Automatic annotation (TrEMBL):
InterPro entries: CSD, CSP_DNA-bd, NA-bd_OB-fold
Name of this chain's protein: Cold-shock protein
Transmembrane segments: none
Domain of life: Bacteria
All residue ranges annotated as the CSD domain in the record: 3-68, 93-158
Pfam families, per database record: CSD (PF00313)
Amino acid sequence: MIQKTGKIKWFDTAKGFGFVVDDHGGADILLHANVLRDFGLSSVVENSVIVAETVETERGQQVTKIVSLDLPDAQTVQSDMQIPQGDFSALPLLAARAKWFDKTKGFGFVNVFGSSDDIFLHVEVLRAYGMAELQQGEAIAIKLSDGPRGKMVVEVRPWDFAIPR
């Protein structure tokens, strides 16, 4: 096994894989969805910095374990959707599930466990926290705030984010 540092080139949850560009050049490194899930994510945004253990296979290099994953420096939560800005650190993380999310439309809705109320989730919030999309029923941890049309997600994390590692 060799530890490599690079950036996420792209990741497609429907295909179940994506690629990492090695900081030291060479061929792209395959990142399979199972490895990403083992790290606690179902998707990842392009240009995230990844440190990973890799192995050489017949088809080229492949990630076997993610050591760390950091968001792009320029990632911000800004859009035409008037996403609330501010310090949300004091808000509690709530357990939730994705009701549905459409990457093409750029939004979806989630439900906090124990409630059927729909809560708006914009794709830019997902991207700001390193995710590209959500699958229906996927468990996540969220922080809520009041938006122009009701409650909306202002922070989203993998479901186990609050569990000490």
